[in-house]
Amino acid sequence: MLVSKQDPIVFNPILLPAHNPGPMTGRGNNTYLLVGSTGGATLIDAGIGESRHLAAIRQHLSDHRAALDQVLVTHAHPDHASGAPALASAHATARFHKYPWPEADESDVVEWRALNDGDRVLAGTESLIVLHTPGHAPDHVAFWHEASGTVFTGDLIVLGSSVMIHSSGGGDLGQYLASLERIRSLQPRQLLPAHGPAVTSPEAALTAYVNHRLARERQVIDALAAGRDTVESIAESIYDGLDPALMPAARETIRAHLDKLKKEQRAFEEDARWKA
């Protein structure tokens, strides 16, 4: 007898834009509100405290006769976490949670409660599993809603763009690739990222992301072989014509690739000069 795979449950988080467009954020951040049937609500990512974002949260909570119980932050970068003090001021009983990153978590306003890999968190009336997915940032986490096959992926993936690996700010390309593979191994049905549209073909998108990084790695190796031996010269050769405003991010990404090659003993650095 053939048994059909059970259909996923209906899962419709409320998308609330953070209203912070810019060169590094695109059209701005996505935050997601999950409202439970018992009057509690959870916000995924805090935004930057922009007034329209705060007003939209208040309106949706009022419409659902709900209160904001907690805010789950995917990582400490300002576009995801800097809105926490404004939310704490507006919602006095809300709790704030993230994976610890001590040097980035200091705050006189918000008390951060620790998330750990594998934790189960009740968001509204839905159960989310915390997945530590470092690479973009040391404290980066994703939230896995297993019942619907949905992952809130933070800054792991952005359709139509690439994710910066900020090498000098704790980014690690090897860890990032492992995090992508971890999400792919779940065989999710949908990814809800912090930037850009929902990803409805996760396997294809995650595979393309991994392949893109490996192709960039080959470009870095070719640049080294051609005698380019600084981060700047390698970035200029690979990102020729890039908007100057984005070149600092490109250099960070090149440095992340070089650091990965160094860890694998495929490149070495001496006096800020690199060789294969």
Main β-sheet description:
6 strands, mixed
The number of E-state strands comes to 13
Order of helices and strands: EEEHEHHEEEEEEHEHHHEE
Whole-number total of structural domains: 2
Mean pLDDT: 93
Give the CATH topology of the largest domain: Metallo-beta-lactamase, Chain A
SS strand fraction: 15-25%
Structural class: alpha/beta
How would you name the CATH homologous superfamily of the largest domain?
A: Ribonuclease Z/Hydroxyacylglutathione hydrolase-like
Supply the CATH class of the largest domain. Answer: Alpha Beta
The CATH architecture term of the largest domain is: 4-Layer Sandwich
Q: Which strand order spans the largest sheet, edge to edge or round the barrel?
A: 1-2-3-4-5-6
Summed up:
The chain is an alpha/beta fold and 276 residues long. It has helices at residues 51-63, 78-81, 84-90, 173-185, 202-225, 231-238, 247-263; strands at residues 14-17, 30-35, 40-44, 67-72, 95-98, 112-114, 120-123, 126-132, 141-145, 150-154, 190-193, 268-270, 273-275. Helix content is 31%, strand content 21%.
